[in-house]
Amino acid sequence: MSPSVRLQEMIRVIRSARTQGEERGVIQRECAAIRAQFRQADNGGRSHNLAKLLYVHMLGYPAHFGQMECVRLIASPRYSEKRVGYLGAMMLLDEKQDASLLITNSIKNDLSHSSQYVQSLALCTLACMGSAEMCRDLAPEIERLLRASNSYIKKKAALCAVHIVRKVPELGELFTPSARSLLSEKNHGVLHGAVVLITELCQRSPDTLAQFRKAVPELVQVMKGLVMSGYSPEHNVAGISDPFLQVRILRLLRILGRNDDVASDAMNDLLAQVATNTDSSKTAGSAVLYETVLTVMDIKSESGLRVLAVNILGRFLLNNDRNIRYISMTSLQKIVQTDHNAVQRHRGTIVDCLKDQDASVKRRALELSLALVSAVNIRSLMKELLLFLSCCPPELRSHTTSGIFNAAERYAPSQRWHIDTILHVLTTAGGDVRDETVPNLIQLITTATELHCYTVHKLYRALVTDISQQSLVQVACWCIGEYGDLLLGGECEETEPVQVTEDDVLDALETVLQSHMSAPATRGFALTATMKLSTRITHNVDRIRSIVSIYGSCIDVELQQRAVEYNALFKKYDHMRAAVLERMPEEGTETPQPADQVCDLLDLLGGSDEPLQPRPAAPGPAPAGPAPAGPAPVSSSTGGDLLDLLGDLDPPTAPCVKVYEKNGVTLTLQCDSQTDTSITVSLIGSNSSHCDITNFTLQAAVPKSVQLQMKAPSGDVIPADGLGQVTQTVLLNNPNKVSLRMRVRVSYSAQGSTFQDTVQIDSFPPVTCE
Amino acid sequence: MIKAILIFNNHGKPRMSKFYEHYSEDTEQQIIRETFHLVSKRDENVCNFLEGGMLIGGSDNKLIYRHYATLYFVFCVDSSESELGILDLIQVFVETLDKCFENVCELDLIFHVDKVHNILAEMVMGGMVLETNMNEIIMQVDAQNKMEKSEAGIAGAPARAVSAVKNMNLPEIPRNINIGDISIKVPNLPSFK
Fold first, then answer.
1. Which pTM does this prediction carry?
2. Chain B residue with minimal CA distance to A79?
3. In 3D, which of A678, A674, A670, A667 has the Cα closest to residue A705?
4. Where is this region: Disordered (chain A) (predicted)?
5. Contact B51/A193, CB-based, under 8 Å?
């Protein structure tokens, strides 16, 4: 067995290794030697071996065989061995290892050792890796040490208590009385530990919080002492007296003063004093000021103080030091919800920070800008955000795009602006947008009927320029397919006129189909668009036919299926082609579409009703699918899956309320189930006249904060003479618990003529059986 | 709470790593690598705060770092710590190391990792700041070292002899002293305990 080398020798040898392999070899030899040494019973150099092992562990090599050695060393009477043993325990052991339980007894003995350094070792280890059981066992010891006379031990015991409270919150009550008495200590280290302990206790339990509110005057005294005292060399950092302690006390005051007038009053003067007297030219002063500002904004402070605080933040924002700017933006982020106007004043500076070189500052500026968007500044702010998007670091891109979309959805001043913005984002950063952007955009375009011409021209131009951004290409293909006739028509008031021939359009779509860059979904879009154009163009139908038949033998199964079906449309079902491929109906029209009722409530009952805003129903789960995407007319998969959502038909004993009765058609409302925030009702249509009712459809609208989801109806024909019924289940989600009202529009055909009526339901029947 | 304290050099080699939450060894190495990757890309005049580390904790955590010559000192903290306070703490830590090692350089940290751990243990305990007064820390560390030395007894004599000789201010000794059996007059070695 080669004699073991000392730690420093070993480090020297490791460092002189030229390659990774050489290093591994050296370390393996050393570890083997160490293992052999551990197996020997008594050995003078045990601590050195463990130290070597810890070094090896730091470099990343496995060191678990040292765990038992740690336990043995901790039990040794010699201080040097204990020290290394405890260090090893902190680095190698954790609560998941069994060996950690073995050191509990050693720690317990060491906590009552005569030497304070041994006690401190034990406290340190317990605070770092103490498991819940160990904490429970040793908590009384720690509490005793909290009242010990030695300030060195007291401060360590205080932090150890914090760890215990984190692991086992119930033990918090054990420490509350001692924590209170620690506040009268003079030693800053002990005070610091006490404040941390009290902070942790208050955060865990509201009762303790109420108890410690009485300590606010004491804390204010201590703080005053720190601020007003002259120069004290031992605690001075850059001219501020113990800024660490000041920051901790301010944070505790923040927690105590939140939502409490009495406590807030007591600290008002102090905060004003600190805010005005602290010198912020160095980091230490800035740290204290920053904490003061956060505290002022969080408690119930008087308005003059709040103004002072926001001004301080504004000054920070203009500081040259990037650290200070970063900090001020972080704190503005915290108060932007409550004091929106105050932060708006600094919008210019924040937007400038978007152009800073520093990635962290950019990130903060982005978050803050997104929070500051409002209806008033949306145009200018969006310009800045789009500029930022074109040069922002890649890790921030997806966050930026989702932020821009959210802001655009909430505050878009006009539909054209909205569409322009989304198109701009797609051209700049199409690869980083969310998946549901494409269907959302398509839905938006569909509703903006007067902009179809403009949109399709713009998208065509974007498609011709660049086909690499998948989302953009998908939307463009869909639009060209739908509104190809507008594109070929030529004139459009909003953009410069450009003559687009049918060949150009088909060329563009074919390029997308054949390009390597197109994802399979994109090619699907392009193929369907080509097919739709067959009814919209006049001359090149043969070309379309040939394109479609080529893809009938494509390797991609999805494309192949589509191509084969379209081929069939050309051959056997040519008479249906025009009807199948006609333009998608706008949302909310009367055409009976039982499959689409899950998402058809836009524009529903006109804008004349103020209190009831038509709410688009929450899009149903997967079955609804990407509704506007091409293949809906051809493949029948979208509608069929919804039939599984019919819901149960109720037993006839539940109470029904008749809400509509006319022409023999009766509509009744029945409550199926009800919880605090949601209600499920069934609308049942029955027919007592002598002729069948066909095309029976129901549409509903609810107040703004309520969410509506209509399941598919059981059918749309009600046979005559009460021989059958049509039932439709409606789910209402009412998280804000507003009074529920619903407006239902009934439409049906009877005896060849169509009828349509609206009925308002103001009260819902209760449920008899729960 | 401080989640981890890392010291590594300009090439990413770890010089000291202390984790206050448990991670497996592989994860620890990965964290060190990722942190080095993030921190080394930073310019000289940007701010000292970094966000966006995926491995160590996620969205609540920030990296606060300072670059001194060849070493990066990185503290990974969560939102309950004051960022500027931690910056000052790093400064205090480095100044303490400087006092304890006398003009500390990277080699000191390499060869005396355990001492660095002991000093750190006096400043940060269980992820929380314990003591920030430099003199107090140095006093405690010295007392502990003295205790260790006094225990070492006979077994520690050769080591202490070596360190005593190293610390001595010897005048320049000529190299080739060995000229047979002639006894050489050596300077008086101070007696030591």
1. 0.67
2. B148
3. A678
4. 604-645
5. no
A253 min Cα distance to partner chain B (Å): 14
Kindly indicate the confidence band of residue B10, based on its pLDDT and cuts at 50, 70 and 90.
very high
Q: Residue A469 in 3-state DSSP?
A: coil
Q: Is B4 left (phi over 0), alpha (psi -120 to 50) or beta?
A: beta
Phi first, then psi, for residue A15 (nearest 5°) are -70, -25
Question: Could you give the maximum distance between any two Cα atoms of chain B, in Å?
Answer: 74
Contact B108, A137 (CB under 8 A): no
Position B97 pLDDT exceeds 90 = yes
Q: Whole-angstrom Cα distance, residue B122 to residue B132?
A: 9
DSSP-based three-state secondary structure for A377: coil
Asked if the C-beta of B24 comes within 8 angstroms of chain A's C-beta atoms, the answer is no
Pull the structure tokens for residue A118. 């041994």
Are the beta carbons of B82 and A80 separated by less than 8 Å? no
Bridge partners for B66 per DSSP: B73
* Structure confidence by residue, pLDDT tens digits, A567-598: 888 888 888 887 888 777 766 444 444 433 43
E strand or H helix at A694: strand A693-701
Structure token digits, residue B21: 């939450």
Smallest Cα–Cα separation from A34: which of A18, A51, A22, A9? A51
Candidate CATH numbers 3.30.450.60, 3.60.10.10, 3.20.10.10, 3.30.565.10; the one for domain B2-151: 3.30.450.60
Distance between CA atoms of residues A493 and A483, nearest Å: 16
Do the Cβ atoms of A234 and B85 come within 8 Å?
no
pLDDT at A69: 86
Give the mutation candidate from B130, B154, B163 for the A interface (greatest A CB count, under 10 A).
Answer: B130
Taking CB atoms and an 8 Å cutoff, what residues of chain B touch A159?
A: 125-126, 128, 130
The answer to whether A80 contacts B152, with C-beta atoms less than 8 Å apart, is: yes
CB contact under 8 A, A162 and B50: no
Could B84 and A79 be called an inter-chain contact, meaning their C-beta atoms sit closer than 8 Å? no
SS3 B28: helix
Tell me what pLDDT residue A615 has.
38
pLDDT beyond 80 at A326 = yes
What distance in Å separates the CA atoms of residue A174 and residue A60, rounded to the nearest whole number? 40
**Cβ within 8 Å of A, B 113-132:** 113-114, 117-118, 121, 125-132
Q: Are A332 and A368 in contact (CB under 8 A)?
A: yes
**Three-class SS string for A495-518?**
CCCCCCCHHHHHHHHHHHHHCCCC
Look at residues A505, A575, A485 and name the one whose alpha carbon lies nearest to residue A547.
Answer: A505
Cβ–Cβ contact A102 with B under 8 A: no
* Cβ atoms of A481 and A532 closer than 8 Å: yes
State both tokens at A534.
């067959």
Beta strands in B54-151 (DSSP E): 62-68, 71-77, 124-125, 128-129
Say whether A708 sits in a helix, a strand or coil.
strand
Calculate the CA A81 to chain-centre distance.
49
Mutate to test the interface with B, among A96, A152, A334 (most CBs of B within 10 A): A152
For residue A592, which of A695, A522, A499, A676 has the smallest C-alpha distance?
A695
Amino acid A354 reads: L
B191 band by pLDDT with thresholds 50, 70 and 90:
low
How many angstroms from the chain centroid is the CA of residue A588?
A: 32
Predicted confidence at residue A163, as pLDDT, reads 92
Please say whether the beta carbons of A267 and A210 come within 8 A. Answer: no
DSSP A626: S
**Helical residues (DSSP H) of A391-469, grouped into ranges:** 394-411, 415-429, 437-447, 452-465
Contact A79 B140 (CB under 8 A): no
Chain centroid to CA A498? 44
